[in-house]
Each structure stands twice: as structure tokens, then as C-alpha cells.
Amino acid sequence: MTSTPHVTIRDLDTAECEAVLARHHVGRIAFSFKDRVDIQPISYVFEGEWLSCRTEPGTKLETLHHSPWVAFEVDEANGPYDWQSVVIRGTVYLMPEGSPDHAATVAAIRRVAPLAFTDADPTPFRNVVFRVYPREMTGRGASSGPRSGDGSPTTHA
Hints:
Pnp Oxidase, Chain A; six-stranded antiparallel β-barrel; 3 helices; 7 strands; globular
């Protein structure tokens, strides 16, 4: 019998989506304003029900002031048929400096990047923090495995 690949694609449940988000700290944020759509990499921390992010003043921030609705994606790939992807659609909330929410967001970011917002910060120009509240979270995953010569999936104990 010859073994041919078998790929299973399925939806991820909420716990699986949250686990993927928690394992990673770089994703892509997509945003739009009028007739322009953009997507950029961004570092983040996922805790509880929030994505905590930091950025610098500029075009992205100006756009988010006018249009705070975003999509965010993070992927985990081990091969072309073995991957997981999580997409969030949500709203950006800027955290005003000096507020308890700002302090909580900075603390979350510092758990992953301890030098952030210190004198040794390698990116001190990224001094604006915001959170994304996921209004919708979906995930998909693919996994591959051998299929026996008769077409039935091979099981592993």
C-alpha cells in the first residue's frame, strides 16, 4: 500500500484561538480609511480578552483615530498543510497616558518586553499604547497525516 497525504481543515474553538494568540507576540493589524486599506506587522500581548499593543505617532495612529475598526491576524505554520490562523475583528481603544488603563496596558507589554518604557527601551519612540477588543474571533487550522492506500485516514494512538 502507498501512503498519500491527507489534510484536515477545521475551525478552531475559542480556547484554541486564545492559545494561538497567547503563544505569539507578533501579528498583522489591518485598518482602513476612506479608499485605503493597509496591513502592518505589530507586536502585541494577548491577556484576558484584550490585545495590548504599542506604536509610534504617525499615519497608522492618525487613521485609527478616525476609523478604529481593525482586523488582526496571527499565524502559526509548521508546513503547507500544518498550520493554525486566528483572525480578530474589533475596535481599537487608545489608552491615555496617566490613566489606569494605560498603566495596565504598559504592564502587559512589559511582561513580554521587560525593557519597554524604561531608560533602556530599544524603541522609545513607540510610546503610544492601545488595546484591541475582539468583537469577533475566528480560527482555522490544517493538519496533515498519511492516508493508507485504500483511501482511509491512518490513525495514531
